Amino acid sequence: MVRRARQHDLIDAAPVAAVDATGLETRHVSAYFGLRRGSEGHRQRAWPKLTAVVHAHSHLILGAVPGVGPSQDSPDFTPAMRQAAALIRIDTALGDAGYDAEHNHRLCREDLGVRQTVIRLNQRNTGRRWPKTPYRRAMRRRFPKVLYNQRWHAESGFSQHKRRLGSALTARGDASQARELVLRVLTHNLMILAEAA
Protein backbone atom coordinates (compact mmCIF):
# COMPACT_ATOMS: atom_id res chain seq x y z
CA MET A 1 0.00 0.00 0.00
CA VAL A 2 2.72 2.48 1.00
CA ARG A 3 4.73 1.78 -2.17
CA ARG A 4 1.69 2.52 -4.34
CA ALA A 5 0.95 5.65 -2.28
CA ARG A 6 4.49 6.90 -2.87
CA GLN A 7 4.22 6.16 -6.60
CA HIS A 8 1.19 8.46 -6.75
CA ASP A 9 2.86 11.17 -4.60
CA LEU A 10 0.42 10.68 -1.73
CA ILE A 11 3.20 10.48 0.89
CA ASP A 12 4.97 13.82 1.33
CA ALA A 13 8.57 14.38 2.40
CA ALA A 14 7.75 15.28 6.03
CA PRO A 15 4.53 13.40 6.86
CA VAL A 16 2.19 14.92 9.43
CA ALA A 17 -0.22 12.49 11.09
CA ALA A 18 -3.17 13.26 13.35
CA VAL A 19 -4.41 10.78 15.95
CA ASP A 20 -8.10 10.84 16.81
CA ALA A 21 -11.06 8.57 17.56
CA THR A 22 -14.57 8.37 16.18
CA GLY A 23 -17.69 6.43 17.04
CA LEU A 24 -19.87 4.49 14.64
CA GLU A 25 -23.40 3.16 14.83
CA THR A 26 -24.45 -0.44 15.25
CA ARG A 27 -27.56 -0.26 13.11
CA HIS A 28 -28.85 1.59 10.08
CA VAL A 29 -31.44 4.06 11.35
CA SER A 30 -32.11 7.31 9.50
CA ALA A 31 -31.83 10.57 11.44
CA TYR A 32 -35.49 11.28 10.63
CA PHE A 33 -36.62 7.92 12.02
CA GLY A 34 -34.52 8.51 15.14
CA LEU A 35 -36.19 11.88 15.69
CA ARG A 36 -39.67 10.40 15.18
CA ARG A 37 -38.93 7.72 17.80
CA GLY A 38 -37.56 10.31 20.21
CA SER A 39 -33.97 10.74 21.31
CA GLU A 40 -34.36 8.29 24.21
CA GLY A 41 -35.36 5.44 21.90
CA HIS A 42 -32.35 5.97 19.63
CA ARG A 43 -29.60 6.42 22.25
CA GLN A 44 -26.81 3.85 22.27
CA ARG A 45 -25.15 2.94 25.56
CA ALA A 46 -22.03 1.61 23.85
CA TRP A 47 -20.80 1.95 20.32
CA PRO A 48 -18.02 0.73 18.04
CA LYS A 49 -15.02 3.05 18.29
CA LEU A 50 -12.15 3.52 15.85
CA THR A 51 -8.88 5.16 16.88
CA ALA A 52 -6.92 6.11 13.79
CA VAL A 53 -3.70 7.79 12.71
CA VAL A 54 -4.68 9.83 9.66
CA HIS A 55 -2.02 11.08 7.25
CA ALA A 56 -2.76 14.79 6.79
CA HIS A 57 -1.67 15.06 3.16
CA SER A 58 -3.63 12.10 1.74
CA HIS A 59 -6.16 11.10 4.46
CA LEU A 60 -4.82 7.55 4.30
CA ILE A 61 -5.34 5.74 7.61
CA LEU A 62 -1.88 4.59 8.70
CA GLY A 63 -2.84 2.99 12.01
CA ALA A 64 -6.20 1.75 13.27
CA VAL A 65 -7.33 0.31 16.60
CA PRO A 66 -10.94 -0.87 16.92
CA GLY A 67 -12.60 -0.65 20.31
CA VAL A 68 -15.82 0.06 22.17
CA GLY A 69 -16.89 3.48 23.43
CA PRO A 70 -17.38 5.36 25.58
CA SER A 71 -13.82 4.86 26.78
CA GLN A 72 -10.61 6.82 27.33
CA ASP A 73 -8.74 7.64 24.13
CA SER A 74 -5.17 7.56 25.42
CA PRO A 75 -4.67 3.76 25.78
CA ASP A 76 -5.21 3.29 22.02
CA PHE A 77 -2.53 5.87 21.13
CA THR A 78 0.41 3.45 21.45
CA PRO A 79 -0.86 0.59 19.24
CA ALA A 80 -2.17 3.03 16.61
CA MET A 81 1.10 4.98 16.45
CA ARG A 82 3.19 1.79 16.37
CA GLN A 83 1.20 0.59 13.34
CA ALA A 84 1.63 3.93 11.59
CA ALA A 85 5.36 4.20 12.31
CA ALA A 86 5.87 0.70 10.90
CA LEU A 87 4.50 1.93 7.56
CA ILE A 88 6.16 5.33 7.14
CA ARG A 89 8.55 7.60 9.00
CA ILE A 90 6.26 10.21 10.56
CA ASP A 91 7.73 13.69 10.97
CA THR A 92 5.02 15.21 13.18
CA ALA A 93 2.28 13.62 15.29
CA LEU A 94 -0.75 15.65 16.40
CA GLY A 95 -3.22 14.78 19.14
CA ASP A 96 -5.94 16.48 21.16
CA ALA A 97 -6.08 16.71 24.95
CA GLY A 98 -7.43 13.16 25.20
CA TYR A 99 -3.89 11.94 24.43
CA ASP A 100 -2.11 14.29 26.85
CA ALA A 101 0.45 12.12 28.63
CA GLU A 102 4.24 12.29 28.80
CA HIS A 103 4.54 8.63 27.81
CA ASN A 104 2.75 9.36 24.50
CA HIS A 105 5.33 12.04 23.69
CA ARG A 106 8.18 9.73 24.71
CA LEU A 107 6.85 6.85 22.61
CA CYS A 108 6.80 9.02 19.49
CA ARG A 109 10.00 10.99 20.02
CA GLU A 110 12.25 8.40 21.62
CA ASP A 111 10.96 5.02 20.40
CA LEU A 112 9.39 5.72 17.00
CA GLY A 113 11.68 8.46 15.69
CA VAL A 114 8.96 11.10 15.28
CA ARG A 115 10.68 14.49 15.11
CA GLN A 116 7.89 16.51 16.70
CA THR A 117 4.79 15.85 18.79
CA VAL A 118 2.02 18.38 19.31
CA ILE A 119 -0.50 17.19 21.90
CA ARG A 120 -2.71 19.75 23.58
CA LEU A 121 -2.44 19.87 27.37
CA ASN A 122 -5.47 18.62 29.27
CA GLN A 123 -6.24 21.32 31.82
CA ARG A 124 -7.76 18.73 34.15
CA ASN A 125 -4.29 17.17 34.50
CA THR A 126 -2.47 20.39 35.44
CA GLY A 127 -4.85 23.28 36.03
CA ARG A 128 -2.69 26.41 36.30
CA ARG A 129 0.42 24.53 37.45
CA TRP A 130 3.30 23.95 35.07
CA PRO A 131 3.74 20.32 34.01
CA LYS A 132 6.75 18.63 35.62
CA THR A 133 7.78 16.47 32.66
CA PRO A 134 9.88 17.85 29.76
CA TYR A 135 7.68 17.22 26.69
CA ARG A 136 4.53 18.43 28.41
CA ARG A 137 6.39 21.50 29.73
CA ALA A 138 7.39 22.28 26.15
CA MET A 139 3.70 22.19 25.17
CA ARG A 140 2.97 24.75 27.89
CA ARG A 141 5.95 26.94 27.09
CA ARG A 142 5.42 27.30 23.35
CA PHE A 143 2.41 25.59 21.83
CA PRO A 144 2.49 25.58 17.98
CA LYS A 145 -1.15 26.49 17.29
CA VAL A 146 -0.80 26.77 13.53
CA LEU A 147 0.65 23.28 13.27
CA TYR A 148 -1.87 21.88 15.77
CA ASN A 149 -4.72 23.21 13.64
CA GLN A 150 -3.85 20.59 11.01
CA ARG A 151 -5.65 18.13 13.31
CA TRP A 152 -8.77 18.90 11.27
CA HIS A 153 -7.41 16.44 8.70
CA ALA A 154 -8.33 13.59 11.06
CA GLU A 155 -11.95 14.81 11.22
CA SER A 156 -11.94 15.26 7.46
CA GLY A 157 -10.62 11.70 7.01
CA PHE A 158 -13.36 10.32 9.28
CA SER A 159 -16.00 12.33 7.43
CA GLN A 160 -14.74 11.00 4.08
CA HIS A 161 -14.76 7.46 5.50
CA LYS A 162 -18.37 7.70 6.72
CA ARG A 163 -19.65 9.41 3.57
CA ARG A 164 -18.28 6.62 1.39
CA LEU A 165 -18.82 3.60 3.62
CA GLY A 166 -21.65 4.73 5.90
CA SER A 167 -21.64 5.41 9.62
CA ALA A 168 -23.23 2.11 10.70
CA LEU A 169 -21.68 -1.35 10.95
CA THR A 170 -23.54 -4.50 9.93
CA ALA A 171 -21.79 -6.82 12.41
CA ARG A 172 -23.33 -7.31 15.85
CA GLY A 173 -20.75 -8.79 18.26
CA ASP A 174 -17.69 -6.86 19.48
CA ALA A 175 -15.19 -9.19 17.78
CA SER A 176 -16.99 -9.15 14.44
CA GLN A 177 -17.40 -5.36 14.64
CA ALA A 178 -13.64 -5.05 15.22
CA ARG A 179 -12.99 -7.14 12.10
CA GLU A 180 -15.45 -5.05 10.11
CA LEU A 181 -13.72 -1.85 11.22
CA VAL A 182 -10.36 -3.18 10.01
CA LEU A 183 -11.89 -4.14 6.65
CA ARG A 184 -13.44 -0.68 6.36
CA VAL A 185 -10.04 0.93 6.94
CA LEU A 186 -8.49 -1.22 4.21
CA THR A 187 -11.35 -0.31 1.87
CA HIS A 188 -10.96 3.39 2.71
CA ASN A 189 -7.26 3.27 1.81
CA LEU A 190 -7.82 1.29 -1.37
CA MET A 191 -10.41 3.83 -2.52
CA ILE A 192 -7.92 6.68 -2.01
CA LEU A 193 -5.26 4.75 -3.96
CA ALA A 194 -7.73 3.98 -6.75
CA GLU A 195 -8.65 7.66 -7.06
CA ALA A 196 -4.98 8.64 -7.23
CA ALA A 197 -4.38 6.06 -9.96
From TrEMBL:
<feature type="domain" description="Transposase IS4-like">
    <location>
        <begin position="15"/>
        <end position="190"/>
    </location>
</feature>
<protein>
    <recommendedName>
        <fullName>Transposase IS4-like domain-containing protein</fullName>
    </recommendedName>
</protein>
<dbReference type="InterPro" id="IPR002559">
    <property type="entry name" value="Transposase_11"/>
</dbReference>
<dbReference type="Pfam" id="PF01609">
    <property type="entry name" value="DDE_Tnp_1"/>
</dbReference>
